[in-house]
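User: Some background: our group keeps a shared notebook of sequences we're curious about, and every so often someone picks one and asks for a predicted structure to add to the entry. Today it's my turn. The entry only has the sequence so far, pasted here. Could you supply the structure so I can complete it?
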Amino acid sequence: MDIPESKDLRGAHLVGAHFEGANLIRANLAGGNLTGSNLENANLEGANLENANLEGANLENANLEGTNLEKANLEETYGLSIDQLSKVKTLYNAKLDEELLIPLKEKYPALFEEPK
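Assistant: Of course. Here's the predicted structure to add to the notebook entry:
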């Protein structure tokens, strides 16, 4: 599935959506509810997920390079790795499970600083 790069999906209610392998490059999903969504192998490069709810989402092998995750809820997600999160634009005020939060803050403290 390809979502046009200019597509504005701010605040969209996408609970349980199936975006496996979707091309979501630079998509604006700010404030969206993606609870329980399948984003396995999705390309979210440069996407805006500020204040999005991704609780319980599957992010296995998702490309998060340059993704804005400011204030995003990433609790109880699965398939999410430190390597994936090390490549995002920001994790400022994001909600993460402790097993990801603690090592990320130690290795990549700049990700948690307020964006300029």
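Suggested note for the entry: The chain has one domain: 1-111. The domain at 1-111 is CATH 2.160.20.80 (Pectate Lyase C-like).
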